[in-house]
Amino acid sequence: MKFTVVFAGLLGLLIASGFSYIINSNNENNVGGSGSQTVSINNQHNVANVDSNNGWGSWNTLWDYENSFAATRVFSKKSCIVHKMNQNVMPSLQELDRLAKEQKDKEPEGAPPKELMFSINPTRVEDLSPFGAKIAGMCQGIPTYVAEEIPGPNQPLYSQNCFTANILWILKLSFCGTSEETY
User: Fold this and answer.
1) Taking the CB of the first residue and of the last residue of the chain, which one, N or C, has fewer CB atoms within 10 A?
2) Which UniProt keyword terms apply here (predicted)?
């Protein structure tokens, strides 16, 4: 009986602290034309994690609401990109949870996604501690770069050298370098 009570209590903690949703997404770069995104939200640690599983175009992003930094790990580039979260454009943790629930098992609909474009600084980050323990843990041992948001309309200068992460059809993040060597 004690085991059942302890097990139920642990299960309750697990359910209360985080939720995970799998959302199907179309991707023309993947054989078969589809992939999926998994959105995991941990309210206890104030983070959201989005995994996009699309073959060679797979990526993972971590939004640390506590420290206001985000990191995107691009598997094909074997690198990590860290940037400041734009609280005016990026959804809150609660809003992301609501949107993930709505998007589950649905096709994209409604308004086009909000867009943020970033310029990647080509200098590698040596010390990840200023970005917080969660992002440092995700990017440790991987070449990591800082990106700054490009304000205003997207710059055509960067259009050829960008990696784009579409998150739930609600937010499009483009990370751009100034040359192929940088990114």
Assistant:
1) N
2) Disulfide bond, Signal
Which residues make beta-bridge pairs with 71? 62, 82
Number of other residues whose CB lies within 10 A of the CB of residue 171: 20
The structure's pTM equals 0.76
Query: Shortest CA distance to 174 belongs to which of 160, 182, 49?
Result: 160
- Which of the four pLDDT bands, split at 50, 70 and 90, describes residue 5? very low
Distance CA 128, CA 113 (A): 30
Q: What are phi and psi of 143, to 5 degrees?
A: -55, 125
Domain edges within the chain:
20-176
pLDDT at 31 over 90: no
Distance of CA 144 to the CA centre of its chain: 15
User: Residue 146 phi/psi, 5° resolution?
Assistant: -100, 140
